Amino acid sequence: MKPPSGETHAAGHSLFLRGIGVRFGGLTALDDVSLEVAPGQVVGVIGPNGAGKTTLFNVVCGLVRPTSGMLELNGTRLSPAPHRLAGLGIARTLQGVGLFRGLTVLENVMAGATCTARAGFFSGLLGLPRSDRDERRLREQAMTLLERFDVAAYAGALPGTLPYAVGKRVALARALAARPRLLLLDEPAGGLGAQDIEELGALITTLPAEAGCSVMLVEHHMDLVMAVCDRIAVLDFGRLIATGTPQEVRDDPAVAEAYLGAEVDAATPSLSRQEASA
Amino acid sequence: MSEQTITPAAPAAAPAPAPKRSVALPGFLSGSTLLRHLVLAVLAGVLLFLLTQQLDPFRNFQLATVAAYLCATAGLTLLVGMNGQLSLGHGALMAVGAYTVALAQNAFADKGITGNQVLPLSLALGVLVTMAAGAVIGLAAARLRGPYLAGVTLAVAVAVPAATVTFDETFNSEQGLSVAVEPPPLSLGLYFPNERWQAWVALTGALLTMLLLANLVRSRVGRNLRAVRDDEVAARLAGIHVGRTQVLAFVVSAASAGLGGGLMALLAQSVSPGAFSLTLSLFLLMAVVIGGLGSLSGAVWGAVLLVALPDLTHDSAQLVSLSPAVAQRLEGNLPLAVFGLTLIVVMIAAPGGVQGLLRRIGARVRRRAPAR
């Protein structure tokens, strides 16, 4: 898997999350989460299941409206609406594959670049050359991306017929088709084999330099996160419990506690209860 | 074995990448969607023109009816098949077009306005008014999903014929309106068969509809329609405004249905609520599904079936000598039953509809051809 190099420009968007809070009724999903993605950085968000990682992504995408706090994109306030993100240079992959199952692989990637097209409804309706030119350009760009991801052979196939790892690559190609300056990856390694994860890691680390794109990723696969991230944020029960470089996060006792449970002596009461019942 | 040697580049698990079927099109044709579709439309137009010369008046009238239905089924397949929005109310949208054309034609006739521009003008009016109606339904539809959307469009299908009874001063209740239609232009000759003229008018409308819809489907808009159908969240993240796309699909679909209804009014030279009942809406939907959901060619099969099936059932019912009482009871109900039965058979035997079946056969033939 080669990186989708384009023209090398500045290293991507900066994103600032300031004191984001989200409540669903009485449940606090996120509580005062502040986080920065600097231009060209790869920032990982980790945490146990239900920690609020995907909710945080949904806030950035405008799929969930925060009850408090605000977002800043390159220093200006961002109130995101999902369909406007691509135009702002923000792309996101979904958990699983999330491809359009009725569209071929090529069409899927072309759909990802739809925000870069200029021809409108009437040029489409009348089949004007303007629309044809647009379509040709999108098709060529999509084909180039598919070739870089080594999946060009599948261009005419429907997503349902693809091996899982191929589907994940196509989904990534679709996200990159919009030429984003900030890429949000939701569990990009989920369900992939060791070989594929290694290739994915190599790709992600080259994105800032090659595609001019900052990256924010949610991932369970700790080896990948530790290998590719410049900074890591750890969420637990909706609160940010640690941020820092991979090394700092690894050494943080609060992180170990969130992942492995309470200290051993704190666990003894339950043990003694078991003994008592036995 | 031979297949593998043809495409050695493809990974073993990959389905053979669909080779672009470039049947040696000249460069200027493969490059331009409009030109390619225009050539096809003109070709179809010439063939149909020759056909109308051969057919007797009754068959020409049937051909015209197919053309009018085709406008509606093509629009419906775009909405249901490509955009995934179910509409049980397209018969009502046809009624809107039909009544608008009827009122416009009669108004023109009252004012003494005649000439070649009258027909296109009132048809255009019919399309515009139906588009407005479609936009209103579409705005509601964009907020509704699945059974709720079906419910709203069903309400439309029931409400529109009822409205013609409520506002009976304009729409003349159950009797409906007769439509003033000028005879064929004199330049065609004094004894030019009216049915052939009707067929020409309706076919022109249908070809125009098919041309425009085919352009749209091949464009970015068509892809966005299908993307919204498949995954709304992914579509939004790809930069597609889901609500706007859904309303757009409804308006385009309504425009086609309005044209179909308007043509229907011209053919029958009358409009009445009975002609645009809920049954029509259901028939249209069944026709689109049987023809092949989401395919414009499938819409053609559907439109042909809409005219041919009742005709065939009628003929075959007459072959079997039935007592008059039974025959009378079957009259009118039999086509519905046959249509339902056809739908069930098609769904079991060929879920892709007629067009899907043809495509499968075509693919098999093509696969076998190079093996020889």
Short description:
The complex is a heterodimer of chains A (278) and B (372). Chain A has 278 residues and is an alpha/beta fold. Chain A has eleven helices and ten strands.
What does this protein structure show overall?
The complex is a heterodimer of chains A (278) and B (372). Chain A has helices at 53-61, 82-88, 105-112, 121-125, 129-148, 164-177, 194-211, 222-228, 246-251, 253-260, 264-277; strands at 15-24, 27-37, 42-46, 68-73, 76-78, 90-92, 182-186, 214-218, 231-236, 239-244. Chain A is 42% helix and 22% strand. Chain A is an alpha/beta fold. With 372 residues, chain B is mostly helical. In chain B, 75% of the residues lie in helices and 1% in strands. Chain B is built from 17 helices and two strands. Mean pLDDT of chain B is 87; it is low at 1-23. Chain A binds chain B through residues 61, 63, 82-87, 91-92, 94, 98-104, 107, 110-112, 114-115, 117, 119, 121, 123-129, 131-132, 134-135, 138, 153-157, 161, 163, 174, 178, and chain B through 9-11, 13-15, 17-18, 31-34, 37, 212, 215-216, 218-224, 226-227, 229-231, 233-242, 248.
